[in-house]
Amino acid sequence: MSLTHHLPALQVVLPLMAAPLVVLFRRSGAGFALVTLVSWAALAIAIALWRQVDAGGTISYAIGNWPPPLGIEYRVDRLASFILVLVAGVAAVVVPYSRRSIEAEIPREQHYLFYSLFALALAGLLGITITGDAFNIFVFLEISSLSTYALIALGRDRRALLAAYRYLIMGSIGATFIVIGIGLLYLMTGTLNLADLGARLPAVRESRPLLAAMAFLTVGIGLKLALFPLHQWLPNAYTFAPSAVSAFLAGTATKVAIYVLLRFYFSVFDQSVFFQRMPWSEILLVLSLAAIFVASATAIFQDDLRRLLAYSSIGQIGYITLGIALASESGLTAAIAHMFNHGITKAALFMLCGCVLVAVGGTNMSQLAGLGRRMPLTSFCMVLGGLSLIGGPGTAGFVSKWYLLLAAFEKHSWWLALAILASSLLTVVYVWRFVEVAYFKAPQGERSAPREAPPSMLVPACLAVGAVIWFGLDTSFITGSASAAAAQLLGAAK
Amino acid sequence: MNPASHFSYWITVFLMVTGLFIVMARGNLIKKMVGLGIFQTAVYLLYIVPGKIIGGTAPILADGFTLYSNPLPHVLILTAIVVGVATLALGLALVVRIHEAYGSIEEDEILAAEQAERAAS
């Protein structure tokens, strides 16, 4: 057996092994080198897996050579390979960025812990995406969540501790709900393998525990992905965490939770017709629209740029769940494409926030006055990222919004298309707030020379913004992968 | 169907709701963690109880034994217990840090401090 055969295992094992090694080194330099190497290797493996799936179809890897469904299976299909590229890609950009960023935000003796926790969170997120076993999802979910709580608590503001504690309570309740859901499914079918579950559920589709399982899973995963109104933990967590952590989490953690939702809804549940017994897509539709409008409107009134972006994240997650609620192939394509696009856009924006934090000392709107003159490159990139949030043509955000509109037209629901356009106007308003403060307000105090953040932070951030533009102009990778993934999800359902 | 036959489920659901109630209703950060612990422990019961078959033995291949209990729930719950302990440890560690930073572990006092901070900034 060649090494390429073991890529699915290596995808998770490399970052998982890196975490304890970094703690053993106890040196921040060595930790940085190792985690950078591992995150780049993870990206290379994710791209290799994506190419393998693109060429040869779904990969199934039996851990320890125990064949599924008895053994644990790692399963890489179109959707999983696409999300793996997103998670590993964001990590590969954020780790090089984090070195200078955390010097300003975390005490020196804790740096190696940061790298170790980061590797653990990465391993957990990759593991959730790649595994084909329901209980494994829970275990990886807790690996990533527990390391995330600790990462958020590393923030320099004392409110970071409280944000981490709240996130821990909400996150643990969510994870426990997921375990209850998985437990009920296991009691009804006697299997934990996702594909096997999907095959066995139709036999018990009339039973009540199945409905309960779906309810528990929806609420549990909804807590993890910050589905409105279960989003209360998110704004503080993203605002007070170290900037590198916010960038990584905003780009990956909620997206991976959405992936789990898609996995359960379409690979496990939809094979039984009992969806017709519950108005689940109507419920999801209403919640998504509420998320888009309430969160975007709240974002307008935030005084801290990072909190504004955090609320914008909740709104953008609304667009993704809106695509899922439409439950058509084009709707799913839009949702999956928006997961990727919003992931890289928000990661880029939070990284730029970190640059501002280092150079200016804060991200409050009053401190940002005249930023366009003080940090021209950062401000320009921030505006480009904002355009992608709005869905301006030529940016990645345009592609997914276009597909979302197409999906709405397909359903002949003009009011939905209008709602999507109207909500984009709200996005314009909160992005404009930044533009106004940065370009049309005079800087406070004496005029100082332009001073950008150090290049080791600016280059990765600009790279991420470059990716936003690149994927907006060359849409073949995103739309190709997303539509193939959507077709596969719905194909499995028929 | 006689209610007593579902005795174990009644206990499980009672513990689950008790734990969740404590998490939501109590303002003391440590009591919240206790509630969370009870909530998680109830889920262990949900898994383990159905795995037991009355009269069944441990799943060891030997002559004369044909009825086995399912070992898988126990293994799953061993993992879940480890996760629960880690969550509890991390949560309590955070409470210690919060106490150092705010001088209190009562949620309303901390919220008041936070409000004051926001008003000042």
| Radius of gyration of chain B from CA coordinates | 21 Å
User: Which of globular, elongated, flat, extended, rod-shaped describes the shape of chain A?
Assistant: globular
Q: Major sheet of chain B, described briefly? A: none
Q: For the largest beta sheet of chain A, what order do the strands appear in spatially?
A: 1-2
CATH class of chain B: Mainly Alpha
Instruction: Tell me which oligomeric state these chains represent.
Output: heterodimer
Largest interface: A-B, 24 and 30 residues
Structure overview:
The complex is a heterodimer of chains A (494) and B (121). Chain A has helices spanning 7-25, 28-56, 78-105, 111-130, 134-153, 159-189, 194-200, 208-224, 234-240, 243-269, 280-300, 305-326, 329-360, 371-374, 376-390, 396-410, 414-440, 455-473, 476-493; strands at residues 59-62, 73-76. With 494 residues, chain A is an all-alpha fold. The radius of gyration of chain A is 21 Å and the shape is globular. The mean pLDDT of chain A is 86. Chain B has one domain: Helix Hairpins, CATH 1.10.287.3510. The model of chain B has no long low-confidence stretch (mean pLDDT 86). Chain A binds chain B through residues 135, 138-139, 142, 146, 149-150, 153, 158-159, 161-162, 164-165, 168-169, 172-173, 176, 179-180, 183, 186-187, and chain B through 16, 20, 23, 29, 32, 36, 39-40, 43, 46-47, 50, 73, 76, 79-80, 83, 86-87, 90-91, 94-95, 97-98, 101-102, 110, 114, 117.
